[in-house]
Amino acid sequence: MQYLRSLFFIFQMYLVMLIMAIGFTPFVIVNRRYAYSAVHTYCRWVRWTARLIVGLRSEVRGPVPETEVIVASKHQSFFDIILLVSVLPRPKFIMKSSLRFAPIVGYYADRIGCVPVNRGKRAEAIRKMVAGVTAGDAPAGQLVIFPQGTRVAPGAHLPYKIGTYVIYSETVQACVPAATNVGVFWPRHGILRRPGLAVVEFLPPITPGASREDFMAQLESSVEANSDRLMAEAGFPVATRG
């Protein structure tokens, strides 16, 4: 039964994406600010229907950043993106380049100022990230970056990449780490969505001026320790880090 509920939830999620895109796009073409209205409305709809249909409640903890900052978030599945976009006033993402060509998503990503990069070419990706973020016509907002570069399943460990520090040092902006447990309920792949409480938590910011070593150590320890705590709250068996 939960599988069928999940299947219906996913179907309506993409159907509503199409319907909202049709309704909002004429306004978005005229003025970028309607793109934010569209993505906020859609993500809040997904959160509400996740609770209603599959029993997946969601919560955002900690002070929501409202100024120009970098948000360095743990990334476990599409649902952490939904939670972040639902509350950040002007979210924009460092995203993989192929998403530019995705129907609906690619257009709206461009309108809210997302920066596409080719993850397979590290040096080029870093140059494009910096250029895209610091360009004079880049829209102001909260820049979300996934410091591990991809979705990471609960319990798996991937290294933190240097790109987050490069943007932090180039923009001289505070970096707000964010932890999550959403992968316990909404996996990277597959249909099944499990009931429970999915959380994204904004953590104390790392102020500008930290050295590369200090920044990377603070970021990883903050995000990983708090993500482990949130996953343990959700009943996921978190291994002790040695």
Topology, please?
Blueprint (H helix, E strand, L loop, with lengths): L1 H29 L2 H22 L1 E6 L8 E4 L4 H10 L3 E6 L8 H7 L3 E3 L4 H13 L7 E4 L17 H9 L3 E6 L15 E7 L9 H22 L9
Parallel strand pairs: 1-7, 2-5, 2-6, 3-4, 3-5
Antiparallel strand pairs: 6-7
Describe the structure.
The structure is a single chain. The chain is globular and about 50 Å long. The chain has 242 residues and is α/β, with parallel strands linked by helices. The protein has one domain. Helix 1 packs antiparallel against helix 2, helix 2 (33-54) crosses helix 3 (78-87) and helix 5 (122-134) packs parallel to helix 6. The protein has a seven-stranded mixed sheet, sandwiched between helices. 46% of the residues lie in helices and 15% in strands. The mean pLDDT is 91. It contains seven helices and seven strands. Helix 4 (105-111) links the parallel strand 3 (91-96) and strand 4 (115-117).
Count of strand segments: 7
How would the global form be characterised? globular
Strand residue content: 5-15%
Uncertain residue segments = none
Query: Structural class of the secondary structure composition?
Result: alpha/beta
- The proportion of residues forming helix, as a percent range, comes to 40-55%
Main β-sheet description? 7 strands, mixed
| SSE ordering | HHEEHEHEHEHEEH
- Write down the oligomeric state: single chain
Strand order of the largest sheet: 1-7-6-2-5-3-4
Q: Report the total helices.
A: 7
The whole-number mean of residue pLDDT values reads: 91
Q: If you compute it from the alpha carbons, what radius of gyration comes out, rounded to the nearest whole angstrom?
A: 17 Å
- Alpha carbon gap, first and last residue: 40 Å
Q: Total domains, how many?
A: 1
